[in-house]
Amino acid sequence: MRIGLVGVGRIGAFHASTLLSLDAVDTLVISDADQVAAKRVAAELGAEQVADVDTMLASGVDGLVIAAATPAHAPLLRQALAAQVPTFCEKPVARTLDETLELARLEAASAVPVHIGFQRRFDAGYREVRRAIGAGELGFVHTIRANTHDEMPPHASYIPTSGGIFRDCNVHDFDAIRFVTGQEVESAYATGGNKGERFFVDAGDVDSGAALLRLVDGTTCLVSSTRYNGAGHDVRLEAMGSRATLTAGLDDSLAMRSAQDGVTFPPGPVHRTFMDRFLPAYVAELTAFADVVRGERPSPCTVADALQAFRVAEACDRSWREGREGRVVPMSEVPDR
């Protein structure tokens, strides 16, 4: 297959290498607003380079991978749908709820498959938690704990266009909670704070956040995020049930240490980045996208799925912005159509 890739920044260059490692991909065509970067990555990987997405789509690609900066996601996805090209798009689908709703409508009206990049759906641990909950092995699940803790913050220039910590970091947790439980969120309460760099405050964001969600079946979900987890990159999900508790991300790489004497777990080494933590999942999700392009499976994560996770992030953002006390935001306040 001939696959197009737009965006060769950190995650884009990472996806480029992964795509070329797949047996299903014969040719990779790349484009980036930074022509120098695109030329460099093309030369390093032996990929083709074109000037823009219009040229790429006109060249006859079988599928498109969108890994450009967040503001470019929505217009690029519109172009791909108009061109009838199966598309993989990194999260978020768009910067705003209105744009996400619009793209969900376009997807629903089109026969073109769109696969959104929530890679935790392809992580072995998260998939096992989903299976165990579905099989009833945990009994009734009463509590979910999920966290996304980055070792260090991204560059200051990234934050103003990120959408904020709930839409950028915790949206993965919100999608993962839906994925493993099969339940929707009923209400959300959130808070956050800043103790790090000033650029978070300047962008109207927080460097650490926390959310309390209630699912429609009564399950309580505790969600946290931070840009300053100096111990390492720590992403986990714990499902606590009446019979058993199961955790994704609990292994030797756990980025914490015990305060108890004589405890040697976890031995390390810890993960430092999300690409390190989820490498097998990224390979699995792009392999799945190749199957989607060939028509061998439906999209495993649609724009409609991404919309539901984005709605939860929107509710959390509304909650913490209402002040120090905040309030519980029912999901009925956040449009879904």
UniProtKB/TrEMBL annotation:
The keyword Nucleotide-binding does not apply. Signal peptide: none annotated. Residues 126-246 form the GFO/IDH/MocA-like oxidoreductase domain. Residues 1-118 form the Gfo/Idh/MocA-like oxidoreductase N-terminal domain. InterPro entries: Gfo/Idh/MocA-like_OxRdtase_N, GFO_IDH_MocA-like_dom, NAD(P)-bd_dom_sf. It comes from the Bacteria. Keywords: NAD, Oxidoreductase. Gene3D superfamilies: Dihydrodipicolinate Reductase, domain 2 (3.30.360.10), NAD(P)-binding Rossmann-like Domain (3.40.50.720). Belongs to the Gfo/Idh/MocA family. PANTHER family: BINDING ROSSMANN FOLD OXIDOREDUCTASE, PUTATIVE (AFU_ORTHOLOGUE AFUA_2G10240)-RELATED (PTHR42840:SF3), NAD(P)-BINDING ROSSMANN-FOLD SUPERFAMILY PROTEIN-RELATED (PTHR42840). This is Gfo/Idh/MocA family oxidoreductase. It comes from Luteipulveratus flavus.
